[in-house]
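Hi P.,

Sorry for the delay on this. The queue was packed all week, but I finally got your sequence through. Input first:
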Amino acid sequence: MTASKPDLYRDLARELAALLAGETDRVANAANMAALIYHGLPDLNWAGFYFRQEAELVLGPFQGKPACVRIAIGRGVCGTAAARAVTVLVPDVHDFPGHIACDPVSRSELVVPLIEAGRVLGVLDLDSPLPARFDQHDREGCERLVALFGDHHR
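Then the structure:
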């Protein structure tokens, strides 16, 4: 990666804003956002969304290998982020109690909840085969991208 992470996320936010402009369909925009992140960030093996349906998260648009389709709220990294309504950054998924191994190659994970009017609508999930791939810059950058996505759909 030649650009600094803050610069990279600034560029991704600019590209995301251009992709969102004029489009109101949440699924179409989530699909483009997942592709933008997957191809724009190095060392990812999965990037995508899970959307809340009642007491579980259901697989949405993503890039990467096939994934778990349904995750109970409170289970795994995604379900924990949804239950707590906070971003969860896991340096090593093997150390996370209850981790759901959709892809056994994944080692680190970053999950950002999509929140609207105090309600969790889903999560953005990023996985990497590298331990400790994600840091505070990734957390802040992805939270900004999710906020941009959410603001566009309010």
